[in-house]
Predict the structure.
Amino acid sequence: MGTAHQRKQLIFKIIDELCQKYKITRLCYYIKVSRSGYYAWKNLGKPLYKNYDKELASKIMLLFEERKKGYRYIAFQLERKYKITRNPKTILRYMQILNIKSPIRKKKFFHYSRKEISLNSILVAPNILNRNFEAKATFKKLVTNVSYLYHKNGRVFSSIVKDLYDNSILAYQISKKNDIKLVMDNISKVFSKQAYKCILHSDQGSQYNSHIYKDTLESLGVTISHSRKGNCYDNACCENFFSHLKSELLYLQPAKSEQELIKQVNDYVIWYNYDRPQSKLKGMTPIEYRNHTSF
C-alpha cells in the first residue's frame, strides 16, 4: 500500500466516524474525496455474495485508482501483475459491489457514406492499406496522423506514427503549428537509422500531399497510402489512439500549461506502450507482444 493510499484510507475512517453527526455528501465535499470512493472503501470487506474475495477486491481497488479504467483492463492487469486469472464479468461484479465505475467514454459508432479519392490532386496516393489493419511483422504497416491537444492557455498539435503489428507508438512530435515540419520531424524519428520497406498510411491532409513528404518517403523506399477523402474510418487506428489519449488522460486531468501537457503525453505514450494491455494483443501490452512474438 502506498502512502497516498494509506492517507485516503485514514480520511475514509474519519468520515465514517463523523457520519452519525453530518451528512456523508457534505463531509466528502469539504474533505475533497468522492462519495463513490468512500462507499467503495465501506464495502471493501463486505461478503455481499458467495465466495467474495476481500484480497481480490483490494487489488481491484488499487488498479482502479491507478487509471480509473474499466473491468476488462483490470482483468488484464490482474493477470499481468498478480498472476490472478478471473473472468472479466467477475471483475465487473466486484466493481459493482465496490461502487466504482470508469468515467472513460463508451465506444460510439457512427455511419459515414464512402467517398472516392479526389482526382484533383496528383499527389494523392491510392488507398493501399484499405482498412487492412492486420500486420504479420513489425515495420510493415505504419499509420500516421495529427490531432490537436488542448491545455488551459491554448492548444498544440501532435503527430504520431503507429505500428499496426503491435499497436505501439513508434514516434510522436508536438508543435504549436500544424505544418509540414511537425510531420517530417516525426517521420525522421522513425526512419533515422534505416529505411524500411513498408506502407505508411495517412489521411489527405496538406502535409501528406506535399512534395517534401512524397519525395522523402519515396527515397526511403516507403510506399505511401492515403485514406479516401472525408473518411476517418480509413485511418481508424490513429483516430483510436488519440481518442484514448484524450478520454483516458487529458479530459480527466486537463493540463494547466503547454509544458505540463507535453509531460502528460510523454508519460501516456510510455504507459500505453509498456503497461496498457490490449485485448487484440491477447492481453499483452504492445512491447510485451512484440517481445513475445519475436522468439
